[in-house]
Amino acid sequence: MLQVLISAGVVFILLKFLERGKNRGLDGFASIAFVLVPALLILLANIGAGIIGVDKRFLVPLALLYFIVPLFMLRLQFDLSWGRSFLYGLFVFLVVLVVDSLFYLMIGFIRR
């Protein structure tokens, strides 16, 4: 969950930079929700897959939730255009991908 907090912080800084001068309500809570909601859904899916006995490789496409959740939240809740929502959703997805990759690489180096 540490990588979720780091990702949310980076997303918050990125949104504040991209939305400077505009008051759309994109605050710290929204940036945390963009990352925390997909993380919790993926966690619940992993728990369910473990209970049922499904191979967890089938859950890899759930990483797209990091793109889908911000896309629809930005479009439907904050009334941004589809294009801007798509770009911000892509930014969130890429930030989470980079932070998670760096986090797991760092853990791998620590365990050696």
List keywords for this structure.
mainly alpha; 112 residues
Sequence-ordered SSE layout with sheet pairings:
Blueprint: H1 2-18, H2 28-52, H3 65-77, H4 82-111
Helix pairs in contact: 1-2, 1-4, 2-3, 3-4
Structure description:
76% of the residues lie in helices and 0% in strands. The longest helix is centred in the C-terminal third of the chain and has 30 residues, at 82-111. It is an all-alpha fold. Keywords: Membrane, Transmembrane, Transmembrane helix.
Give a summary of the structure in a few sentences:
The chain has 112 residues and is mostly helical.
Structural class: mainly alpha
How many H/I helices? 4
| C-alpha Rg (nearest Å) | 15 Å
What is the distance, rounded to the nearest whole angstrom, between the alpha carbons of the first and last residues?
22 Å
Form type: globular
Contiguous low-pLDDT stretches (5 residues minimum) are none
| Helix share bin | over 70%
Q: Roughly what fraction of the amino acids lie in strands?
A: under 5%
Described by strand count, sense and barrel closure, the largest sheet is: none
